[in-house]
Design goal:
Distance between the termini: 54 Å
Radius of gyration: 16 Å
Oligomer: single chain
Strand content: 35-45%
Shape: globular
Strand order of the largest sheet: 2-3-4-1-5
Order of helices and strands: EEEEEEEE
């Protein structure tokens, strides 16, 4: 699968699990969680990068098996992060002839309660 993207089954690939309106905490962790089947084979990898949630699915999408992927964005084309004074983005290229929509995140500074 790593040597030739044509070996990836239809529906396999990167999914962003965040949805419009979701809030997340930007933290300095890189979290990985393998998702395995009954035989302990890795079928997917859940990952969190700086508070952004993704799943790398290594098999065709089966929403009954992975209901948390309903509504997930398949192979985003760009991740845009808008701050009050700047905008940053990460662009991804997928060689599959499809349109890949961008994801946009708006930075919101948390309100801290005064003591």
């Amino acid at each position: 699968m790593l040597d030739d993207p044509r070996h990836w089954p239809e529906g396999a690939g990167l999914y962003c699990t965040m949805n419009t309106g979701d809030q997340t905490l930007n933290h300095k962790r890189f979290q990985l969680q393998p998702l395995t089947n009954a035989q302990e084979d890795i079928e997917a990898l859940a990952l969190n990068i700086l508070g952004l949630g993704f799943v790398l699915l290594l098999e065709p999408l089966d929403e009954s098996k992975y209901p948390f992927l309903r509504g997930a964005r398949y192979r985003p084309g760009r991740i845009v992060i808008s701050y009050p004074a700047s905008t940053n983005w990460l662009t991804m290229s997928w060689d599959d002839g499809r349109v890949h929509e961008p994801l946009t995140m708006l930075f919101v500074r948390p309100v801290h309660a005064k003591p």
